[in-house]
């Protein structure tokens, strides 16, 4: 007999306009920057390949799985970054599948010790549902189980719609001197991203299988962080680095009113040892202040990044995190697991560098600099 839990999914589809949908969120949001904010596109030199695989609540009817990959590259001659992104999500036993393919672009305005980044993203999205695997309440007999035909008329099996996102990020250095000979700087950033722009300013795309006019709700993300090298420790220098980060998201028909929208706050700290080994913890909740009523999960992450000698050498980052539910579903849902991989091909020439032989020169002071750490 088909799992009766599918009935719950069906009710959600039928009441599409009354249910608040939520986009996939990543625990290691600092590891997949362009997914967090399109303004981060092309932040580093060369070609960057990123991949994230996330699985949550697998014990609850196969739960939810999400995979996203991004390829992005930087064009310093044009002060721009370009990228392509592909993602796929699957949830439930039906299953409900969501796929997306997008194009990303960013432009940077450089300053003496700060940069302004502006980004855009266009994506084509598809949702698919196998109605034959759903079980409705009128199909069930209290004794013999699923033996009746349902009177519910199946809706569309596939939905296709366009989507847009916009983001802005400011990055800056705060120069600090430890003594007369040595100096170090804190690299910080603050950013704002708006996904599903059409829903924020008017009627967004209809994502309902039954054509009820249920639009994809707008999502607003505020995020920030800093990188603090602990140079004041004698004999250690830059070998230990602290990086506190935060993210606050609100999504709903009126995302500017968090009281009537879905909200998520993530805050925590990760530590980088020897510029290669990363460990950290994040607190995820509906509200910034901790409490038994709001706390959702605590995540623990560990990662490793290569640090080859030379700016043109390839490097990579590999990170794994586990979110332990502290309330709500609890540990019986099998928690949340996330794997991130980022590889940078530093030696690849940009289009601007290939065109220098035709007389085009790279302007001075126009490079999109990026530190060895996350931002």
Quick structural summary:
The protein has about 375 residues and is mainly β. It has helices at about 5-15, 35, 195-200, 350-355; strands at about 45-55, 65-75, 80-90, 95-110, 115-130, 140, 145, 160-175, 185-195, 220-230, 240-250, 260-275, 275-285, 295-305, 315-325, 335-345. Strands 1-2-3-4-5-8-9-10-11-12-13-14-15-16 form a 14-stranded antiparallel beta barrel. A two-stranded antiparallel ribbon has the order 6-7.
The major pleated sheet works out as: 14 strands, antiparallel, barrel
Widest β-sheet, arrangement of strands: 1-2-3-4-5-8-9-10-11-12-13-14-15-16
What is the CATH superfamily label? monomeric porin ompg
Secondary-structure-based class equals mainly beta
The CATH topology name reads Porin
Beta-strand percentage range: over 45%
Q: If you average the pLDDT, what whole number results?
A: 79
N- to C-terminal distance: 51 Å
Order of helices and strands: HHEEEEEEEEEHEEEEEEEH
**Overall 3D geometry?**
globular
Total E-strand runs: 16
How many helices does DSSP assign? Answer: 4
* Corresponding CATH architecture: Beta Barrel
Under CATH at level 1, the class stands as Mainly Beta
Helix content: under 10%
Q: How many domains?
A: 1
């Amino acid at each position: 007999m088909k799992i009766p839990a599918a009935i719950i999914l069906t009710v959600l589809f039928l009441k599409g306009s009354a249910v608040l949908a939520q986009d996939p969120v990543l625990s290691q949001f600092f590891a997949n920057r362009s997914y967090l904010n399109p303004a981060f596109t092309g932040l580093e030199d060369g070609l960057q390949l990123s991949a994230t695989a996330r699985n949550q609540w697998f014990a609850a009817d196969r739960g939810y799985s999400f995979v996203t990959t991004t390829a992005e590259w930087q064009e310093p001659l044009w002060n721009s970054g370009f990228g392509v992104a592909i993602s796929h999500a699957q949830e439930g036993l039906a299953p409900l599948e969501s796929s997306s393919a997008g194009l990303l672009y960013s432009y940077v305005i450089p300053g003496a010790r700060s940069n302004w980044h502006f980004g855009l993203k266009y994506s084509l999205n598809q949702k698919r549902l196998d109605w034959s695997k759903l079980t409705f309440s009128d199909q069930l007999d209290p004794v013999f189980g699923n033996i009746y035909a349902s009177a519910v008329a199946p809706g569309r099996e596939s939905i296709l719609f366009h989507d847009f996102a916009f983001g802005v990020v400011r990055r800056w250095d705060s120069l600090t001197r430890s003594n007369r000979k040595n100096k170090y700087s804190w690299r910080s950033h603050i950013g704002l991203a708006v996904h599903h722009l059409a829903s924020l300013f008017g009627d967004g795309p209809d994502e309902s299988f039954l054509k009820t006019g249920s639009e994809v709700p707008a999502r607003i993300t505020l995020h920030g962080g800093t990188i603090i090298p602990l140079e004041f420790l004698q004999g250690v220098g830059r070998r230990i680095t602290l990086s506190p980060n935060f993210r606050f998201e609100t999504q709903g028909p009126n995302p500017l009113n968090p009281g009537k929208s879905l909200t998520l706050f993530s805050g925590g700290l990760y530590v980088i040892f020897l510029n290669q080994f990363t460990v950290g913890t994040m607190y995820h909740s509906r509200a910034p202040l901790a409490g038994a009523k709001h706390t959702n999960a605590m995540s623990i992450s560990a990662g490793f990044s290569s640090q080859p000698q030379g700016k043109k050498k390839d490097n990579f980052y590999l990170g794994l995190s586990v979110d332990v539910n502290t309330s709500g579903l609890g540990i019986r849902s099998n928690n949340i697991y996330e794997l991130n991989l980022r590889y940078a091909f530093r030696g690849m020439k940009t289009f601007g560098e290939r065109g220098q032989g035709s007389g085009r020169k790279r302007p001075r002071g126009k490079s999109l600099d990026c530190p060895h750490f996350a931002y």
